Amino acid sequence: MAQLYFYYSAMNAGKSTTLLQSAHNYHERGMKALLYAPALDNRSEGQKIHSRIGLTADAFSFNESYDFLEEVQKEQDNQTIHCLLIDEAQFLTPLQVLQLTQVCDRLSVPVLCYGIRTDFQGEPFEGSKYLLAWADNLIEIKTICRSGKKATMNARLDEHGNRITEGEQIDIGHHYEALSRKEFHLEEVSPIAQTACSPKK
Q1: Which of 7, 34, 13, 5 is nearest to 144 (CA)?
Q2: Residue 34 C-alpha from the chain's centroid
Q3: Residue 198: what pLDDT?
């Protein structure tokens, strides 16, 4: 039975490298894997998936209106599809996560999603929230905080390396640092903490 996988981690843990290795394994065995990346990042010509160690692969682009079930069905009409590999899966919409469950359950195609759980304020991304709820398999890719502890959070930095704690959830181009929850200081940046500390009327 085809299953939905969510490989999650903090930033810079090697998610894209792991995805590209999986794609290579399918290709090596003569099997067809469809690679996807969000249209949000248009810094390179054509949609590509990049890893920090220099690996690159072409990918299909998805935006908020992309219908995975419909498009994979079309591809399947022409050739056998053995797997979907989705980079930056936190940017999926809840409806798209639902479509991916149907790709598994109705089309019998495994789906492997790779992404982060939370943003620079510790808030969950919509795509990640539903992947955590609906995926058959949850796999953590671990990385280390500067403290030596496991990193689970993502701090946003400006061009000078200073911490940014306010702004839009999605803002392509900033640098990020993976931190443990203790080093991240949720109580200082979380909107929940700010609401709790606001004066009551």
Answers
A1: 13
A2: 16
A3: 57
Tokens for 169, please give them: 């959830």
SS3 label, residue 61: strand
pTM given for the model: 0.91
pLDDT tens by residue, 15-63: 999 999 999 999 999 999 999 999 986 655 568 887 777 778 889 999 9
- Statement: residue 163 has pLDDT above 80: yes
- Compute the Cα dihedral for 61, 109, 76, 129 and give only its sign: negative
In our burial notation (b when 16+ CB lie closer than 10 A, e otherwise), range 72-81 reads bbebbeeeeb
| Weakest mean pLDDT among 55-59, 78-82, 133-137 | 55-59
Q: Which domains does the chain have, with CATH numbers?
A: 4-142 (3.40.50.300)
The 3-state DSSP class for residue 83 equals: strand
CA dist 80 and 156 (Å) reads 41
Run of H or E including 37: strand 33-38
At 16, phi and psi to the nearest 5? -65, -35
CB atoms within 10 A of CB 17: 18
According to the model, what pLDDT value does residue 159 have?
87
Residues recognised as catalytic: 88
Q: Are 60 and 87 in contact (CB under 8 A)?
A: no
Terminal CA-CA length for the chain: 55
